[in-house]
Design a protein that fits this description.
Blueprint: E1 14-16, E2 21-23, H1 25-42, E3 51-55, H2 60-76, E4 79-86, H3 93-107, E5 110-115, H4 116-119, H5 124-129, H6 136-154, E6 159-161, H7 166-178, H8 182-185, E7 202-204, H9 212-221, H10 237-252, H11 256-275, E8 282-283, E9 290-291, H12 297-307
Helix pairs in contact: 1-9, 2-3, 2-9, 7-10, 7-11
The structure holds zinc ion (2 copies).
Length: 313
Amino acid sequence: MAVSCSKCSGDAVVYLPYGNENLCKKHFVDSFEKRVRRTAREFRMIGKGDRVGVAVSGGKDSVSMLYLLKDICDSMRVELVALSVDEGIEGYREGTLKVAKENCRKLGVEHRILSFKREIGITVDEIAKKKDRMRTCSYCGVFRRWILNKTAREMGLTKLAVGHNLDDAAQTVLMNFLRNEPFRLARFGPSGGIIEHEFFVDRIKPLIRIPERESAVYSIIRGMNIKFGRCPYAHEAFRNEVRVFLNEVEEGFPGTKFRVFNSFMSVRDVLREKFSSNETPIKCKECGELSSNEVCMRCKMLRDLRGEKGKCL
Ligand SMILES: [Zn+2]
Ligand SMILES: [Zn+2]
């Protein structure tokens, strides 16, 4: 027999263990959207006069965020543009880019695709073939952030929304504790960061209180046609370990991920105060983007990749 919704007589499609609630399609969608709106308001993510960029990879989180931001921005008469990054990962990225494109078209949101090849000069597949290097994900993350920030600024965007969910956030918090890197944690959060500079476009994370599983359910209910796959290079061992651990604890003690995130939020101001730096970021002498050193991470990584046994890119 079907379980009924805790709020109406309809059939439940999802159970939320941390609230001990069964919800039907309608009540789940309502609850999901209400929570994202509340988070956006609480951290003043979007205001009048903003021009918002949304980073859409084509996965469940970023496309769900696109739908929500489209509604929020429309109701506030704020401009919204979608940005996707093509890292050059054969057999994986084509599919997700297609999903991003189709959903942007469906919602009538302007969509731009930026490529590693064009902006950086090398694709992730090419990086993966190089020897004596760091993990592929390290380059990918740095290069992607560099492209997104530069493009957003050049387009005159004032906010850049990224689809980090509660699982990502709880993992990040725990990883920073386990690695004893509180100074990194001080820079983490739902919006903004420690770097406040006209050259740095503010990042916002409207899904930061949404469990990963729920953005998947939401994307299915709203017919986003998501392909649930993982990047072939995604095997950051430490994060994986922490993910498995957190999922196990959550299973036995529902609400754990929320509590990890909330603990962090309650000490965030103290962390920021303690680890805020008085140094003003400088512009990288190679690319002109913001950096804490003479040469930024993106340019340093590119140098290393080029320098490999005297070969050029
Ligand atoms: Zn219901
Ligand atoms: Zn640079």
